[in-house]
Design goal:
- The complex is a heterodimer of chains A (about 240) and B (about 80).
- Chain A has one domain (about 5-240): Rossmann fold (3-Layer(aba) Sandwich).
- In chain A, about 45% of the residues lie in helices and about 15% in strands.
- In chain A, α1 (about 15-20) packs parallel to α2 (about 40-50) and α1 crosses α8.
- Chain A has helices spanning about 15-20, 40-50, 65-80, 105-130, 145, 155-175, 200, 215-225, and strands at about 5-10, 30-35, 55-60, 85-90, 135-140, 180-185, 235-240.
- Chain B has about 80 residues and is mainly α.
- Chain B has a single domain, classed as ACP-like (Non-ribosomal Peptide Synthetase Peptidyl Carrier Protein, Chain A, Orthogonal Bundle), CATH 1.10.1200.
- In chain B, about 55% of the residues lie in helices and about 0% in strands.
- Chain B contains four helices and no strands.
- The longest helix of chain B is centred in the N-terminal third of the chain and has 16 residues, at about 5-20.
- The radius of gyration of chain B is 12 Å and the shape is globular.
- The termini of chain B are close together.
- Classes of the chains: A alpha/beta (about 240), B mainly alpha (about 80).
- The interface of A and B includes residues 127 and 176 of A.
Chain lengths: ~240, ~80
């Protein structure tokens, strides 16, 4: 049986970890990308194996194109018969601050990871998806990119940009049977939201609670599967009804 | 690699990969209007050119290619610069 490969950027923790583990159920060998937190990335790998799957770690910083290209080229040289047919662009950071106090690095770092990272990694993998006439790209965006959230002008801008890119790329490459979709989580219980007060915020959410990473992973894996063969350019919210 | 080899490889690829009727393939055939190729299809052409001729084509340069003859010229030119 031919091994199928999927790459999850920022796969060491939170939503990325849940997606990496869930992709096992689709029969994928999962490449778990991480930048610096090797311990957590190894933990994700252990959990993939516990789920009966296989995977490997792939260290690179999504904001550095040379690192991205080198990591992918190195992998491709070893796997001449295979290609990465599923890409989940999940790596993301937040640096919340009011715009009037926002310094260049707050803006640049968030745009670099959330937007430029999407570009560098997708570009590196796209050719093989096109040539093989099969691919699934799922971008993890955010409620913030759909609605805009105060204190997150940088993050909202980056995520809204990825939503635009999702729609444009979907039209660009649909003919080659490569789909591009986005999943927009609301408040999800992860390290990224641990500074938020769930008790205060849950009253705003129709389902009256924060979501779980696994609930996002379910939707991502559906879009990454062959079952989602006629869906492209779509943004699916997973936010408990907070904003539709 | 001479012009004839280039022509043979490219034409064979177009017939096989894109199922273009052989009768439509002529040097002055317009890639888009006559053969129905889109810019995205150049990805496949770039891959076969890399495989067969060892050339890495630049997408930006390829977008200015209009006819099959231009494509043969372009590849021949790249080979001679190698």
């Amino acid at each position: 049986m031919i091994m199928k490969h999927a790459l999850v950027t920022g796969g060491s923790r939170g939503i990325g970890r849940a997606i990496s583990i869930k992709l096992v159920s689709l029969g994928y060998h999962v490449l778990v990308n991480y930048k610096s937190n090797e311990e957590e990335a190894k933990q994700t790998l252990t959990m993939i194996k516990q789920a009966g799957g296989s995977g490997e770690l792939m260290k690179f910083d999504v904001t550095i194109p040379r690192q991205v290209d080198e990591a992918i080229s190195k992998w491709s040289e070893v796997h001449k018969d295979g290609y990465i047919e599923v890409l989940v662009n999940n790596a993301g950071i937040r640096k919340d601050i009011l715009l009037m106090w926002m310094e260049d690095h707050h803006w640049r770092d968030v745009i670099d990871t959330n937007l430029n990272g999407f570009f560098y990694v997708t570009r590196a993998l796209l050719k093989n998806m096109l040539v093989n006439k099969y691919g699934r790209i799922v971008n993890i965006v955010s409620l913030s990119g759909l609605k805009g959230l105060p204190g997150q002008v940088n993050y909202s801008a980056a995520k809204a940009a990825v939503i635009g890119a999702t729609k444009a790329l979907a039209q660009e490459i649909g003919k080659k049977n490569v789909t591009v979709n986005a999943v927009a989580p609301g408040f999800i219980r992860t390290d990224m939201t641990k500074d938020l007060n769930e008790n205060e915020l849950k009253s705003l959410i129709p389902l009256n609670r924060f979501g779980l990473p696994e609930e996002v992973a379910e939707v991502v894996c559906f879009l990454a599967s062959e079952k989602a063969s006629y869906i492209t350019g779509e943004v699916i919210s997973v936010n408990g009804g907070l904003y539709t | 690699m001479n012009r004839e080899d280039i022509t043979k490889i490219i034409n064979g690829f177009l017939v096989e990969e894109f199922e273009i009727e052989e009768g439509k393939i002529a040097p002055d055939a317009h890639l888009k209007n006559d053969l129905g190729l889109e810019s995205l299809d150049f990805v496949d052409i770039a891959v076969i050119v890399q495989k067969e001729f060892g050339l890495t084509l630049k997408g930006e340069e390829m977008t200015s290619i209009r006819t099959l003859d231009h494509l043969y010229d372009y590849i021949q030119n790249c080979i001679s610069k190698k």
